[in-house]
Amino acid sequence: MRSHENTPYAWVDAMMSPAKDTLQLLDKRRLEIAHTLRPAPGQTAAHTEFTRDGKYALVSIWEDDGALVVYDAATLKEIKRLPMRKPVGKYNVYNKITRSEGTSH
User: Fold this and answer.
1) Residue pLDDT, tens place only, 70-95
2) Is 45 within the bounds of a domain?
3) How far apart are CA 40 and CA 44, in angstroms?
4) What is this structure's pTM?
C-alpha cells in the first residue's frame, strides 16, 4: 500500500493474490474502495510509488513483458506507459528521507 499527502487515496496492490492485476484505491477519509484500476489485465500490477509532489503515481507491471505505468494521481488517467522487463525498485528517495505521509520508511 502506498499513498502521499497530496492524494485522497491509498493505492493497494494484490500482487500475491488471484486478483494480481488490480489496484484498489481506498478513500482515506471514508476508508472505502473508491476505484479499481486494471493497468494490464492478467498481468501483475504492483509497487506504486509517487513523485515528490504526489502529482503522479508510478505503477509497475511486474512481468517479463512489463511496463512502468504513470498515472495522474488526481484524475487517475494514464499519462504514459514505458515498456520494460519486471520494473521494480523505483523508490522516491525524497519521499523516504522526509518521511512523506503514506510512504513506507
Assistant:
1) 999 999 999 999 999 998 866 666 66
2) yes
3) 8
4) 0.86
